[in-house]
C-alpha cells in the first residue's frame, strides 16, 4: 500500500477535501499505521468516499464520451480501449494486477454506460 498522505488537512471520512480548482485531496493511510478495527474502518470509509467521488465524476465524463463517439453506449464498446485502461490501472495497483482489475473495470464501465443510456 502506498505510504503517502496528500494534504490530509480538511479531509474526513465523509467528505474528501476539495481544492479551489476542483481537485480532490485524499489521505492515503499506510496499512502499517492502522492497528485497530476502528482505525481500519475509518481508513476504509475515507478511501471509499474518495472512490465514490471519483466514480461519480468518471460516470459524468464517460457519458460525454458516449455523445462524442460515432457509436456510443453499449453498442460502441471498444475492447482494446478497455484493455489499455486495465493495463494502465494495473501499473498503479500492482497488488491487484490486470486479472483482478479487469472485472472491476468492466463493472465500472458497464455502470457508466447504463447511467448514460438511462439518463441516470
Ligand atoms: C468511454 C469510452 O467508451 C466506452 C466506455 C469506456 C469507459 O467507460 O471507460 C471505455 C471504452 C468504451 O467501451 C471510450 O471509448 O473511451
Please provide a written account of the structure:
It comes from Actinomadura luteofluorescens. This is Chorismate mutase. Residues 31-120 form the Chorismate mutase domain. GO terms for molecular function: chorismate mutase activity. Residues 1-20 are annotated as: Disordered. With 120 residues, the protein is mostly helical. The protein folds into two domains: 1-68; 71-120, no CATH class. Helices cover 57% and strands 7% of the residues. It contains three helices and four strands; from the N terminus they run ββββααα. The chain has helices at residues 37-68, 79-92, 97-118, and strands at 4-5, 17-18, 24-25, 27-28. The strands form two sheets. Strands 1-4 form a two-stranded antiparallel ribbon. Strand 2 and strand 3 form a beta hairpin. Helix 2 crosses helix 3. It is globular, with a radius of gyration of 17 Å. The N and C termini lie far apart (34 Å). Bound molecules: the ligand C=C(O[C@@H]1C=C(C(=O)O)C=C[C@H]1O)C(=O)O.
Model regions low in confidence, pLDDT < 50 over at least 5 residues: 1-11
What percent strand? Answer: 5-15%
Q: How many strand segments?
A: 4
How many domains? The number is 2
The unique ligands bound to this protein are:
the ligand C=C(O[C@@H]1C=C(C(=O)O)C=C[C@H]1O)C(=O)O
Shape: globular
What structural category characterises the helix and strand content? mainly alpha
Number of helical stretches of at least 4 residues: 3
Order of strands side by side in the largest beta sheet? 1-4
Listing every helix as H and every strand as E from the N terminus to the C terminus, the arrangement reads EEEEHHH
Distance between the ends: 34 Å
| Gyration radius, rounded | 17 Å
Percent of residues in helices comes to 55-70%
- Major sheet characteristics: 2 strands, antiparallel
Average pLDDT works out at 88
Amino acid at each position: 500500500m502506498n505510504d503517502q498522505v496528500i494534504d490530509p488537512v480538511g479531509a474526513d471520512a465523509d467528505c474528501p477535501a476539495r481544492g479551489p480548482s476542483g481537485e480532490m485531496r485524499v489521505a492515503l493511510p499506510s496499512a502499517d499505521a492502522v492497528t485497530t478495527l476502528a482505525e481500519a474502518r475509518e481508513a476504509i470509509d475515507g478511501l471509499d468516499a474518495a472512490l465514490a467521488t471519483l466514480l461519480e465524476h468518471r460516470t459524468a465524463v464517460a457519458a460525454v464520451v458516449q455523445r462524442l463517439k460515432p457509436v456510443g453506449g453499449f453498442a460502441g464498446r471498444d475492447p482494446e480501449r478497455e484493455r489499455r485502461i486495465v493495463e494502465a490501472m494495473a501499473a498503479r495497483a500492482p497488488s491487484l494486477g490486470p486479472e483482478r482489475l479487469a472485472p472491476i473495470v468492466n463493472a465500472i464501465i458497464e455502470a457508466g454506460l447504463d447511467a448514460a443510456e438511462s439518463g441516470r
